[in-house]
Write a structure and sequence with these properties.
Number of helices: 14
Helix content: 25-40%
Shape: globular
Strand content: 15-25%
Strand order of the largest sheet: 1-2-3-4-5-6-8-9
Number of strands: 18
């Protein structure tokens, strides 16, 4: 499908998105404590890496659709998959994942725009000037195709060396373009899709060490100079030789303190039984302790398709059975496994459901801006919310994420997509991109209603 047709299709199929939201709501009603719904109750997403080739397997899709609220294409958005020949893009496999996710009301993380690995051979043969142009063209081509449809992009992936030096990794981009290629990639990405969160993503940066310090210093520099970066991804691949570090939460927090979101992007932990479960608990509790840790993604649905399958690192075994680690994650997220337990949203005696909504402008440019509405549950859990946003007459909304809108004139009524269930005091939200059309006035957010 062409970029234009995808945009038209998205704009014309609000009913389909609403249906997906109803599906997600049905999941919450039938199984209030799946990974995705329990994480949403904490104001976060819980996602998984997805391979398009497995979407035809019934158990795979059933587990995916039931448990997760976000997906990351495992390989289908990488450079060799999307632009194997220069200026010739192919999106068939990636579209299959995005279309499936949208049909189920899931968010999508884009992975990845600029990476030293899985490059087609033609990229490495370019001179510096040509490579800079090709990098920007690739970012524009890929992000343009999915504009408004991707929650977060891993703009640059794994640009720093392992070890104690904190140096940049040798790659065609680093070797020919120098340190400035990362900034150039982020600035290009912001222009390509102002609504998307832009992340730097890496591994072995989970604790405070030379590599994470180098990334930290880069992010600090970017924030001080206005380079557009919204989030940092921590891959969090753990095993007995590389365990969950004792300063994991502290490390996440110091990045969050720079003013960026943090995301756990490729989580897997080799092992089994209670030891593996305890390590998963540490990771989830660390994320929940950091306000700006917005979500977690495990790197695969089932052990049998994991890139580390011999280490059985995921939450479901090769037969899609829940492992002890699954129960530990669910419990850490506040889930009980029984939607009828006393105190669950919707149980008799919960009291009066309530919520509040607050608005902030998160990005601004000459012709438009990004707005964020944060919804916070009151003293009781809620299972759904509704917020109205009244725009100045001249303005119009071009895209919205993490919510399902309907319109009456210039009044937008927004309900949840996947994120309706909130624990008492927990927060979630939705964002939107608006065209100013000559008016820089702020929209008015109405009363939040909950059930």
């Amino acid at each position: 499908m062409s970029m234009t047709l995808r945009r038209l299709s998205r704009a014309a199929t609000a009913g389909l998105v609403a249906a997906a939201a109803l599906t997600a709501a049905a999941h919450s009603a039938e199984a209030a404590d799946t990974l995705g719904s329990a994480a949403a109750g904490q104001g976060r997403y819980f996602g998984t890496a997805v391979a398009a080739s497995h979407l035809g397997e019934a158990d795979y899709t059933a587990t995916l659709d039931r448990e997760f609220s976000s997906v990351t294409p495992e390989n289908e958005m990488k450079w060799d998959a999307t632009e194997p020949s220069r200026a010739t893009f192919t999106f068939t496999s990636a579209d299959r994942i995005v279309d499936h996710a949208q049909s189920k009301g899931m968010d999508v993380r884009g992975h990845t725009l600029v990476w030293h690995s899985q490059l087609p051979s033609w990229v490495g043969s370019l001179g510096a000037s040509d490579l800079s142009t090709a990098m920007k063209d690739h970012i524009n081509g890929l992000m343009g195709h999915y504009k408004g449809e991707i929650h977060s992009w891993d703009v640059v992936n794994e640009a720093f060396q392992d070890g104690g030096s904190g140096a940049r990794r040798s790659s065609p981009f680093q070797d020919k373009l120098g340190d400035g290629f990362i900034e150039e990639a982020f600035r290009t990405a912001r222009a390509a899709d102002p609504a998307a969160k832009l992340c730097y993503n890496d591994y072995n940066t989970d604790g405070v060490n030379a590599k994470s310090n180098a990334v930290y210093n880069m992010v600090k520099d970017f924030k001080s100079r206005g380079v557009p970066i919204d989030c940092v991804g921590f891959q969090s691949h753990f095993n007995s030789n590389s365990p969950v570090p004792s300063d994991y939460r502290q490390n996440l927090q110091r990045f969050a303190d720079l003013g960026v979101d943090v995301q756990i992007t490729e989580l897997d932990i080799e092992g089994s039984g209670s030891a593996q479960a305890a390590d998963y608990t540490k990771v989830v509790e660390a994320c929940l302790a950091v306000d700006r840790c917005t979500g977690m993604t495990v790197w695969g649905v089932t052990d049998k398709y994991s890139w580390r399958s011999s280490g059985t690192p995921l939450l479901f075994d090769g037969n899609y059975q829940e492992k002890p680690a699954y129960g530990a994650v669910l419990a850490a997220l506040g889930g009980s496994g029984d939607p009828g337990d006393p105190g669950d949203p919707g149980d008799p005696g919960d009291g009066t459901a309530s919520c509040t909504a607050t608005y902030t402008r998160t990005a601004d440019w000459d012709s438009g801006y990004n707005g964020q509405v944060t919804i916070t549950a009151g003293d009781e859990p809620i299972s759904a919310w509704t917020v109205t946003v009244t725009l100045p007459a001249q303005q119009s909304v071009s895209s919205l994420w993490n919510g399902t809108p309907t319109w009456s004139g210039n009044v937008m009524t927004v309900k949840p997509s996947w994120n309706g269930t909130l624990a008492a005091g927990a927060s979630t939200g939705f964002g939107f991109t608006a065209a100013k059309n000559g008016s820089d006035a702020a929209p008015t957010v109405g009363t939040c209603t909950a059930s």
